[in-house]
Structure formats: C-alpha cells, structure tokens
Amino acid sequence: MLNEEKGKPQLDPEKLRMIEVASNPHRIRIMMELLNKEGTVASLSKTLGYSRQLVDHHLETLERSRLVFRRKVGNVEMYSATEVAKTIVSEIVRMHSEIVRVEKGGEVLATHSETGKVEKEETAVRVKKHAATGLRPKRLIPVIIGLSTVLVASAEAMRAGVYTYVLGGILLGILLYVLTSRLIRLLE
Fold this sequence. Notes:
alpha+beta; about 65% helix
C-alpha cells in the first residue's frame, strides 16, 4: 500500500480508494459473505436480509473498484471476492478488533485486541455490555409478550370456565417469548 519515493512512504491513492469503498458496512458484510463462498444477488439478499436492489447497487460499486469479480454461469451472474478484497477485509477486521470497546459513562470496561470475525467480537461486546448495564428494555419485550398472552388466556379461562385455556396460554406464551427473543437477536 505504501510507495517508497525518495525514502518517504507514499500512500497509494488507488488502494486508499478501495479501502474507502470497502469500509461501507453493507459492502463489508457482502465481501465477508463472498469470502466464504460465491454468491448471486438473490442469495446474498436472502443471507444478509438486504433488498436485491441494495445488494445489486453495492456489488456494482465493489466490482468497479475491483473488490469483487463477476462471472456469468448460464443466465446467472456469480460474484466472488478478489484477492485485494481478502486483504482489505482482513485489515478492516483486524483494525476493528483493536478498537472495539465497551463504555459506560466514559469508563472503558473492556477492549478487544483479538483478531477474528466481526460477528464474534460484536457478540462478546454485547455480552459484556449486558453485564455492565444490566437488562436492556429490548430484552423485556419477549417477557411482556409471553406473560400478557398467559394473562389473557387465564382471564378467558376464568370467564368461560374452561381451564384448559390456561395451558394453551402458557404454551402460546412460551412460543411467542422464544420467537420474539430470536427476532430481537437477529435485528441487533
């Protein structure tokens, strides 16, 4: 990345532009996915939960910057990460892992210096954040939904005199609790 000119390091403008393009959160996630395996617009859209238009837009930008390679297989366009993209992603992940930290009131509680996947580091940060700040309001939503279902079923059981509604309410409350918990984890 550095060009030596008259004993002074010079930054390569093309490589800096590639890093700038790659540093977009959507693009970095797309490239990380393409490091694992080739993908199409549809498969990346499904895996990452992005619209096809968004994935297509970012893939075009990445392709113009020579960070992804497109090849046609029949009627399908397959995308894969280039060697330059592998280097840039690994550097971005390394830098990210060195500066990720959990703060509470300005006090640093933990700093990560390990290398690894961004998702794993974010999970570790979330766990430490929960330990430092306690239960967050988002975590109460599944509990409220589950308990309100049980209460409504119990009230209906007492009104109708059919006490099996309570068992159904408990089962439905547990199911709703699990589903909303997973949904919230996915959205974080």
